[in-house]
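Q: Can someone sanity-check these two? First one:
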Amino acid sequence: MAEQSQEKLAYILGAIYGDGHFSKEAKVAFGSTDIEFVLKVSEYIKQLFDLHMIIRRRKLSEKNPNWRDFFEFSSKRLYKKLKHFDSHFTTVPRFILSGNKKVKSAFLRGFFDAEGSVEIRNVKRKDGRIDKIRHVKCYNNNLKLLDSIKEMFHDLDIKSEIFHGKGKNYYVVIWNYKSLNTFNRFVGFEIKRKQSLLNEAIKSYKEMQTRWKLKDYEKVINLRTATKFGSTRLDKLLLRGGIKIPQSTIEAWIYGRTKVTENKSGGVQ
């Protein structure tokens, strides 16, 4: 199979693993509230298998405007094309795990379009500092599948961790400027609202806080150079010296690629 075709198949499978399933009636069923996502999956199916998916709209609520419409399709003909992946539905297919970065990225993009979310929020710490949290998350109750996803992230030089949620649910998390930026470069989202949030998260790292002096920035960079520590350990080291800088600012400085200089008011920019 040509590389481009492998990428499209990987994306389709990632999307189905997230928002679809192989039914007992020998059908592939798929659906989402994001019509652009459903259209992208059906477009790739058309290009790869010359199959036209009939998309149906289902209203989830007639009264609540916050409940978005649901778009779905199912196909026996598509099942015939993908049936050899049915018995391995709980694990990532071997051609993806052993594939190149583009193939792995395509599967991850499809899966995160389906199951992923971007979280941006402020958290007040015990010492009064405000940290901005920026995460890309993905929930799933299949731990083996998430382990494979973490393995692919590692191959793409993206730092991630798996945590236990409620009940049988688990989630994989990506954080820090470097990993979010690498995720954006290799994976990203086809869904515009999710991609917009990811862009916002990455951009916020670059917005330096002018209340910090150039000497504070230089102190962080010098410690980073001497210790090779990440933002968490640098934060603790700085606190011992009485310097309270939000961890998100430390991340922006040590992982950012912009040159920081002193502005007219004495702060960094």
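And here is the second, same format, sequence then tokens:
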Amino acid sequence: MHRLWPVLIFAVSALAFANVSAPVPTIRPATLAERELTAWRSLTRTSQFSDVPHVSSSASGCGDVQPPQALTTPAPLMIRTSASTKVKVSFIIGTDGHVHSPLILESAGATGDRNVLRTVRTWKYRPATCNGVPTEAEGKIEFSGR
């Protein structure tokens, strides 16, 4: 019994010191949304849609036209160069709802354009319809930092 006392005292003192130590603060990595807020103050978007004329659809005509509906359109991560920087992009929304052929109409520089094009290519839409049949539509969007 006398041999167990030193071991027991050592174990209790080790546990007491372990509980007294301060917890180590954990650093949470910033989410993409938080990084976007710090990189670009307020990103505004305006978009326009128009039908893409086809030889087959121009003869039939559309009675009931529904514009495309955005499903996933995250904002691009833009590097702020100035408050008046604008990027205008034109693209085609295919019958599959994917973005095709994005084209920069107004540039913000190589890096900004590359980020915008990369992001716009990932967007998904419910395609425009002509009399209930999916059809292609042209989309134009402007990103600006106001």
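A (reply): Looked at the second one. The beta strands are 43-51, 65-66, 69-72, 86-93, 99-106, 124-126, 128-130, 133-135, 137-145. The longest strand covers residues 43-51.
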